[in-house]
Amino acid sequence: MAISQRQIQKMQQTLSPQQIQMIKLLELPTVQLEQRIKQEIEENIVLEEEERSTEEEPQQISVEEYLREDDTPSYKSHINNYSKDDKQRPVSISGGRSLQEYLVEQLGYRNLSEHDMRLAIYIVGSIDEDGYLRRDLLSISDDIAFSLGIETTEEELEQLLSVIHELEPAGVGARNLRECLLLQMEQLDINSRPRRLAKRIITAHFEEFVKKHYEKLIARLQVDEEDFREAINEIKHLSPKPGNLYSEGGVDATPYIIPDFLLDYHDGKFDLSLNSYNVPEVRVNRRYVEMIRDMVRPDGSVRAEDKEAIQFVKSKIDSAKWFISAIKQRHDTLMRTMRTILDYQNEYFKDGDKSKLRPMILKDIADRTGLDVSTISRVVNSKYVQTSFGIILLKSLFSEAMQTESGEEVSSYEIKNLLQHCIDEEDKRRPLTDENLMDILNAKGYRIARRTVAKYREMLGIPVARLRKQI
Fold first, then answer.
1. Which of 33, 32, 58 is nearest to 47 (CA)?
2. What is d(CA 171, CA 242) in angstroms, rounded to the nearest whole number?
3. The CATH fold of domain 401-468
4. What is the pLDDT of residues 37-54, one digit of tens each?
5. What is the residue extent of each domain of the chain?
6. What is the pTM of this model?
7. What is the maximum span of the chain, computed from C-alpha positions, in angstroms?
8. Radius of gyration of the chain measured on its C-alpha atoms
9. 410: nearest Cα among 352, 354, 358
10. Separation CA 105–CA 121 (nearest Å)
11. Separation of alpha carbons 298 and 304, rounded Å
């Protein structure tokens, strides 16, 4: 084929740096917004934190009037505050010793040689935050030989692991749930019939216990229901995740919620505001504005040696203005969206009764606000509103619409509430299956399939009927 050239004219939409900055700010919850503003203040010398007062805003000046010649290189005026690999990092809230540090401290009270202590510390470093050792000892021994230069065996590591099993919290260092429960049982006084039976169940009949084949277990163990029930209660007092029993250090995922919106309801009226108490207000530093004025001659010209400095300050002022504008636009977009949600779910926000939630999807709010669906999605994601009945995740207010036999649309929350009520009231000896639940809902006028029942049950965190069975 011959090579040819031709001109093609086409329209293509690209996002400007300001639009990208606005999108990223819109996604941030209040805690991360505070950190992002402080980061921008550190990176941009022109920005400064404004003290909360009634002082007037500094006079806005146009820097362009001081630059008579438009020959600024593009690389000097281009603002790129984000890299493509920039990721949101969680804000660490809690401090203190970690689980591993707590275990190492306890090892210091054991009579271990320097060699054994180094190996034991390495094993402790392989324990997850929930207290389990999920790596096999052979792999750990290979890593020790590579990183510490110490030759060891699985048998030696097994002996040191048995020392770790004696530490607090009970069950730490277990390699599976069965071992974890047994380690906790060994630290208890087995001085009663229920505890002896509980240990026997975990030791010899763990699979049947996990699958809740209770009738089969009662027959095999040759005990009555009352004794069996007491043994199960003993097992329920044990922790399946021993690492969670130690909470001094905390982890990055520690839930710590600061609401983005504050909503009060009194005298039949709503009072909605953004929670900006800890969010610093920013402005352009007046000192740099005065510096540019001093560099400009009375006739409006600029000395050659000052031109590059003015161009640098100009780029920083432009970046600061864009950032301040993006913060304001974020405020307006959040309030506009939240007011629309409040208007749409007015009855729900009065008392928090989930049965009053109307079916609502992102498009409903997008149509009412005139914003794009993707913008609404960014607003509601990871944002919370504080109400008189608790702190609510905005995303949780959105639900699918279900139709009754009469053609009336109801929220999927109503279906979930009915499911929860049916399961709470069921006979735990004969729990309701998904098909039973479907029949109950259909009898109440809700047209719903069994797979939808299963989906909503899983969303509620409710296990299948077999695992809900009790004696």
1. 58
2. 6
3. Arc Repressor Mutant, subunit A (1.10.10)
4. 888 888 888 888 877 554
5. 17-48+255-398, 99-164, 177-245, 401-468
6. 0.56
7. 105
8. 32
9. 358
10. 10
11. 15
